[in-house]
Amino acid sequence: MTFQQKLDKIVKKNNSLVCVGLDSDIDKIPEKIRNGEHSQTTFNKTIIDSTHDLVCTYKPNTAFYEQRGKGGIEALKMTCDYIREKYPEIVIIIDAKRGDIGNTNEGYTKFIFDYLGADAVTLHPYLGKEALAPFFERKDKGCIILCRTSNKGAGEFQDLIINGKELYKIVANRVVKDWNFNNNCFLVVGATFPKELKEVRKIAGDMTFLVPGIGTQGGDVETTVRAGLNSKGAGMIINSARGIIFSANPRVEAKKLRDAINKYRI
Ligand code: OMP
């Protein structure tokens, strides 16, 4: 089964475009869990058990695991194993923002797809199509390429005009027309820039976007959904991390987000 097929199934089953970001910063984990053994994994299991019927994907960002060394990598692996064993229909995106020369990328594919068993990874486009080949060759896995990011300074490079066009539009166009020969490419477009999101949708047809920036970063749900939906009333994986996992009630917040998104999907 491909990444897109797996995603379509769970979007339908849970009626959800919500991606919960497992950005489980150890310093923000409630104290009673933090002091126990395998605290990051225990925290993630609690989040996963309380939201699994409300989401389509989980997206651990490797930064919050790598910073802890061995214990963090172990927690990342245990979290991925837990999702695959207990909720195998839910998609796992590893947010690692990789993209090196081809030989090095081979190593990243082995870690992310084979060791962790993830369904997709986030990637930088800067080194070009040739360098990303080891990712593209994994036909069943998703290659989610940064296009127009959610951070304030995103425009520094991404809005540069080259041959009369913004760089982010050139990236979108290239991914859609040239890199997606295995139908396993997707784009990251931030919720904090709905005008640009709409522009990328015009270029990308029905391609699925990973859309972070809702919640703590301030992206508006209605504007984002209206700007980014594809012709099938889907095509978006809408991520919120801190706004859900560190809230007083993650289940309530995840449900609130799912329902708010669905209100504008018609
Ligand atoms: P919250 O701001 O806590 O919801 O987390 C957002 C998550 O999405 C973090 O893991 C970011 O690294 C990630 N992200 C962005 O915030 N902006 C982007 O443009 C791209 C990503 C990403 O690739 O997921």
Bound molecules: orotidine-5'-monophosphate
Radius of gyration: 17 Å
The spatial strand order of the largest sheet comes to 1-2-3-4-5-8-9-10
Q: Calculate the mean pLDDT score and round it.
A: 97
Shape: globular
CATH homologous superfamily placement: Aldolase class I
Order of helices and strands: HEHHEHHEHEHEHEEHEHEHEHH
Strand content of the residues, in percent?
15-25%
Overall structural class, as computed from helix and strand content, comes to: alpha/beta
Counting copies of identical and different chains, the oligomeric state is: single chain
CATH top-level class: Alpha Beta
Care to count the β-strands? 10
Give the fraction of residues assigned to helices: 40-55%
Uncertain residue segments = none
